[in-house]
Predict the structure.
Amino acid sequence: MTASDLTVRTLDQCDAAKTESEYVDIAQESLLGNSLDQWQTYLRRIGRENVRVIHAGQTLVGGLAFYRMQHVYGGQPIPAAGISGVAIDPACRGGGVCATLLIDTLKELRDEGIPIASLYASTQHLYRTVGFEQAGTRYDYSLPLRSLPRPDRTLACTRFESAPLDALDYAHRARAHATNGNVLRTEGLWDRLIHPYDGRRCLTYLFGDTHRPDGYVILKQAGRDDGLPADLIASDYAANTGAAVRRLMALLHDHRSIFGRFRWSGGPDDPLLFMTDELWFEIHEVLRWMLRILDVPQAIQARGYPTHVGGRCTIRVTDSLFPANNGHWELEFSGGQCHARQSNAPEPSQKVIGLDIRGLATLYSGHTTLRQLIRLGQADGADDQAIDLIDAAFAGPAPWLPEIY
């Protein structure tokens, strides 16, 4: 098999029903998961127009899909593609099929004007070859309910069988704009949380005003097969005020007669860890997601920055996939914004920060500082003044994502 044998297509460029069925067959085998009904639900949520498949001659050998969403960095939403469902026929791996599929999709997204893409990687090596790098974390925690403080039920708590999406989205956006990496959810991403693939019933609780709540939690129960006492699980939660955190903890406290532990996903500085009486929590899994800068100036200018940071420096970017990203970029920070202008090579005496597109991605998200990249040999050329400027500009809350896509 050679690159010339491979063709990337949308579903509507094929026999859509047949191709979708073949993609699902490969995905079920190569990703080892989910029933046919669950895959159909997944495709409906992500949008069949966002599926890309790859053929070797007339044979379908793989596919992927992507959510059209927005990541928030520095308080600003940035158009993004959340790549998901990457599946390659195991018989055709190692021949460049996945790389060809990814590169073709990334070029399409860039041409469309989307400046960044993200994903959870099954193998970092492959995704690094096309410019992705670690950009943030997702922690799976559990906490014994006996470690919670005495309940504070001051704030109203309202239970819903059918989640009010507008209210949830209001509180979620408030959280997203206060951190780095959270995404502004599509309807499909919300549906995953409210109606999980495992079919378990979820209940939603809003804290405070039911139209503009201080926070929420979407709860479900672990099955009895997982042991007793059962775990109480949050599909997602947001607590944007101290009162909302305390009310959430009171709600959890009031489940202690039946449930032993509370499980949820969060960031490294999750507020529940700060507010518990005892540090008896456990970390069950830590995942790192990856980011790819598709358009350097557009991505840099779309991001938000601390308003107190001001100054100018030059970076030199190398990107083997997108030549337009290569070269020297003069960055000027002022008033919470950054203007990126491509410039000629500076005088030899001028210090220039050199890094590749992967290093820029992990710096951009706030996952890694420039000083750390230099120490790791992933950046060079900067003086202390430029390092301090860049690290101050990209500083902020540790980037994290509550969901896997």
Summary: The chain has a mean pLDDT of 93.
